[in-house]
Amino acid sequence: MSRLVAFDPNDPGTPTVSKALPERLLEGDPTYRTWELDSVDDGRIRAGLWEATPGRTRSIKGISWEWCTLLSGVVVITEDGGEPRRFTAGDTFVLQPGFVGTWETVETVRKLWVIVS
Length: 117
Prior knowledge:
It contains no helices and 9 strands. The chain is globular, with a radius of gyration of 14 Å.
């Protein structure tokens, strides 16, 4: 078994499709497509590709740490008590455990992600 996993963002396979949780939906009707492309340590560390259509939701990380690099689109992330931060294609950021705020997808976004729980 190979220990090298290559991601092809142009042909990631079949996604899992979902919607925002009703209790977290603030605006719009975003649809999410998630491709989990790798998982180790019984799912404690996961990586993949994610896409969302426009809308605004509550973002609550809990105990998870998430690294993101945007491949396309525009988002505005606002931590509770903080200033809005705009991210576009090519930007990279981390949402640390305990993050609570809003995630607004302004233009359909696609990102690479790694989550450690």
